[in-house]
Design goal:
heterodimer; A: 270 residues; alpha+beta; five-stranded antiparallel sheet; four-stranded antiparallel sheet; 8 helices; 24% strand; B: 123 residues; 5 strands
Chain lengths: 270, 123
């Protein structure tokens, strides 16, 4: 549900370019850093997250699929030490995970010295580099020494757990892809290599299947041979899993996975 | 083009399986649409997207080798069946139904349709 809310928020924001996501207050230090990382973490569609710093300078962060791809100084580019001036290492096009610490250091220094005034989501400009590998929110959070919330992973993991609890003898193994790493979350990891191959194929960037799985799609393959069995692949925003099945038809697998959906937590009374 | 790979054949399949609102013959090598039969007119870009999806689904490393294959995909679009016969490995049958359709029945229907196709090819 939270994954859906994130998509909804992003689509709404993208449909109304120029919409501001922050209040008029100036955020400083860790609060500003958390705010920026959270914004990157929830932006799915290609967009510029434009940050106006407390000294009036601005920087655009180019984000796609929840990864920070590149950064650009925009209007009011200031002298070194001010918000608008990107360090040379970060201003030369695409970003990668190795620069996470430099990036966090720069943002932390900037937010501590001048603060963060506002965050506005805008459409991409020609020449914006969204093709770079970029940095994941988890990597940035690690560099910043903070844990960002990743509700879709826990939702998908909880769903696997519920599925396994209902069909303990029919699930051979389950693997979860999160932040580009595959881990065995149920059973033994003998088929890990096969699971990685499958997940790499179905989540290949800019493929139709990756897009369909991302909106909570479920794919069921026969296991081969004459007996029932198969492979269930499910996705959620930024995450995917493979479940190796035994003695279960494709229809049974699909229905069982649907039944294992985790009910959203009840809203607190106002 | 074989008469079996025609909109008429797809219309016959849909007549037997009324839950199927869209049936497509797709060339999965090229990711292109060969024939379509649908309840409503479907824009070409949607058909191309289904065809591209079929190409990717049936090229996955978990597709059993040397076997007829039927894969189910459920998402917000509905239920989609991607079926492939070894008799014609470069062609896929794509069926799209509402999400509440009986997946097993549709899977069996698609498999039988392709098996029937196999026999006619041999004859």
């Amino acid at each position: 549900m939270q994954a859906f809310q994130t998509v909804y928020d992003t689509l709404i924001a993208a449909a109304a370019p120029g919409g501001s996501r922050s209040e008029s207050a100036c955020f400083e230090g860790e609060a500003a850093l958390t705010r920026l990382l959270t914004e990157i973490n929830r932006t799915l569609l290609p967009a510029r997250i434009c940050v106006e710093w407390g000294d009036g300078t601005s920087t655009a962060f180019v984000v796609r699929n929840r990864r920070l791809r590149s950064a650009v100084s925009i209007g009011g580019c200031g002298a070194p030490g001010t918000g608008g001036a990107l360090p040379p290492g970060l201003a030369q096009g695409g970003l990668s995970a190795e620069q996470a610490t430099d990036f966090i250091t720069w943002v932390r220094e900037t937010t501590t010295s001048v603060g963060l005034r506002s965050i506005t989501l805008r459409e991409l400009e020609p020449g914006d580099d969204v093709g770079a590998l970029g940095m994941s929110p988890a990597r940035l959070g690690l560099a910043a020494g903070m844990a960002l919330q990743s509700p879709p992973a826990s939702d998908l993991l909880a769903r696997i757990d519920a599925f396994v609890a209902r069909h303990p003898t029919q699930v051979r193994a389950a693997y979860l892809l999160a932040d580009e790493a595959v881990s065995c979350v149920h059973g033994v990891g003998q088929e890990a290599e096969h699971a990685v191959d499958i997940l790499s194929h179905v989540t290949a960037p800019e493929t139709p299947l990756a897009a369909r799985l991302e909106t909570e799609g479920t794919l069921v393959y026969p296991g081969g041979g004459s007996g029932p069995g198969g492979i269930l692949i499910a996705g959620a925003l930024g995450f995917a899993c493979v479940v190796m099945l035994e003695d279960m038809t494709l229809e049974e697998a699909l229905n069982a996975w649907s039944a294992a959906r985790i009910a959203p937590a009840p809203r607190a009374a106002p | 083009m074989s008469p079996r790979l025609s909109p008429k054949a797809l219309a016959a399949f849909r007549a037997d399986n009324p839950m199927c609102t869209l049936a497509i013959w797709s060339d999965i090598r090229a990711g292109t649409v060969l024939a379509v039969d649908a309840t409503l007119e479907v824009p070409q870009e949607y058909l191309d997207a289904f065809s591209a999806t079929a190409s990717q689904v049936l090229a996955a490393p978990c597709v059993p080798h040397a076997e007829d294959t039927c894969v189910l995909l459920a998402n917000d679009i509905g239920l989609q069946v991607f079926a492939q016969s070894q008799a014609l490995p470069y062609v896929a049958l794509i069926c799209v139904t509402p999400a509440h359709a009986q997946a097993g029945a549709l899977q069996r229907a698609a498999t039988a349709f392709l098996a029937d196709f196999d026999k006619k090819q041999v004859m």
